[in-house]
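quick one, 250 residues, struct below
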Amino acid sequence: MGKYVIAGNWKMNKTPAEATALIEAIKPLVKDAACDVVVGVPFIDIPAALEATKGSNIGVAAQNCYWEKSGAFTGEISADMLREMGVKYVILGHSERRTYFGDTDATVAKRVRGAIDAGLTAILCVGEYLEQREQGITAEICAMQTKIALEGVSEEELKQIIIAYEPVWAIGTGKTATAEQANEVCAQIRDVIAGLYNQAAADAVTIQYGGSMNAGNAAQLLAMSDVDGGLIGGASLKAEDFATIVAAAK
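---
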């Protein structure tokens, strides 16, 4: 399956000085990681994070980007700006962006295109709300979000996409999908990609699970056949917890 990637999504946490301190604490703990390690930091922390990760095996992600290259878009940041700074990854379509800030499947697709064109790796988040799971339409929701986001993305460009399955009901709630539930949906997403491209392309895509993955449950989740890593929320703000999750990704 895809390469293992453990990415921390710090959300709106840590000042630049605090970001430096956390990365310095994480670095020695993950230096021998068998997977790719990424920290997704607030925009304001990116310069500090890039400096702190220099020469290490930790990549830096932004938590969003706009789809236009430049223009009259007050408060927005383009993928080209991120790339020139040295950012390698960008988290797109996170449920918090969709729920609180008006992101739609269509605008997420535009952001994905902007990221790909700038040479960034997009961590594309998909996932269902609790009522959608209860209605039995999880597979349809995740398939729709995936298909819309990947519209116009070539098989070669697919190499710049990581998909993070994040059931919205399990983000920050302490509830976690069972390892079997997580694996089932990750496998369904892989099947969607196989239908859009081919099985080899689908097998090569990294599909993460994100939804209250922590030091206690990471090993069980990461042992699943179709879970290729994690997008980690709260646990990524604690160096030792984050390192435990990274160590579980073998």
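The beta strands are 5-9, 36-40, 58-62, 89-92, 121-126, 161-165, 206-209, 229-232.
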